[in-house]
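Chain A, query sequence.
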Amino acid sequence: MAQVVYSTRLAQLCAATGVETVFIPRQLWNTQLSDAFENAEGNIATADGITEIDLRPVRTGTPDGAVMAAAGYRHAGGPPAAVVLDASQDFLTTLDKIGQAVRDKLSMVIILVEPDERFNGISANWASLVTGVGAIAVPAGEAENVSQAMVDVIEGLNKQLPAVLIVKPENLEAEITDEAEPEFAAPRTGAVPQTSQVVRAAKSLAQARWPLIIAGRGARHAKSTIVDLANTTGALLATSAGAHGLFEDQEFNIGVLGRISTPATAELARNADVIVAFGCALDDWTTRDGKLIGPNTLLIQVDTSPWAVGRFAAVSQSLIADAQAVAIALDLEVNKLLAEPKVGYRTQETVEHLQSKYWNSRPIPEHQLREDTVDARAFLNRLEEVLPTQRTVIVDQSPQAGYATSYLRVLDHRGYMFFPSGAVVAGMGASIARDDRLIVVVTDESGLMDALTDFRTAVENLQRGVFVVFQQEAPVVEMARYYGLPVHEITGLEQLTADMFISGVVVLAVQQQ
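Chain A, predicted structure.
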């Protein structure tokens, strides 16, 4: 092959994996590696054929911000993004964000430039640090082996995990003249369930009177097959918070299962005689310390990891396999046992019951409202009335996040995100992936201040957005004004109108005493 600089080849190979957007933190702006992504051009072979290289570099403030922006971008439906990081620049703190992407099953390509052999007086095994948080570590090795390393990166992406390509700094300027031909592993089928387990679970579903199916973040890719199974068995559908919105278009969706469930949702869940949980941890939050699962309920858990089964809740049966493969197998087996689809939970009585599955349908008790502050529930209920339907709701772990999840409707599972931190910059990434949706970030003053170093770049890349900040102190308002954003200090619900959200980015500072 013709001579090509290693950093340029990295950019080309990222484009070949389907990467379209590259997030680059401030300390790597205007470096050889960032220039390679900005100047990459030509054609490249991809799984879909020959395509033109057209990478979009996006500058962020911090390494943490770069990873969170890529996470928001991926969660909103964008293809895997690339993130460029320097291991000598706060990488140990960024590991926490990578671990968060692992938990959320958000694949991305992370190019990590190693520092010198000894960094800050200690020797670090970067690959071990990466695998320690659950991501895929791929040491790039010698310059001529870069194509083989990228094949290993693709393996990580196929597992819905961040894949970290660890490159040597001295290789970035190397010229590759004899690139090694990569070797590809034989195609592998997805994890499939054991036949005996499928038959047993299918019999339980066929005999169930009030079945319920719960989907977690590990089952988001299996929506259509899970819906088919629910239609056959007469089951209701629910999600954990990690898959909130997945079944929003389904008539018999009872909503989010967990501490924020409405009484209607909780009652339907408790009355289920058979529950099948796909890709859902069933932790204490989701089951409300076990109170959302009836004492005599037969619980079937489906997960790719045997370590996840029964970790938080005692189960009656388990299927260790991919959610989609299990749903297909169960639907086929149940159809053998039934002459026609069951009615199950799907009655007119249930339809009427589901009219109160949202908190918006329940008035806030007068004695809980105070005159000296804006009640978060009342505010979010009014906000739901004036926001456009096309939206992406992003919440963090602020005290009001639960209310936002309860009161703000979402279009689908890509229209809702929860990030313990970094919600503001994740919103920027989500906006790049889906510019047709208004970005709604709900946080408090500490969440906005935590995003200070990434705030400017986040605002610059947002087309339409609203930052809802529950605050007590004026500095939050002044910071937003400093960056030229219109700020509305909300002291009454009558201030909220639909024309606030027609264009641009706006800050709603909700006064809390």
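The domain at 359-511 is CATH 3.40.50.970 (Rossmann fold). The chain has three domains: 9-171, 195-355, 359-511.
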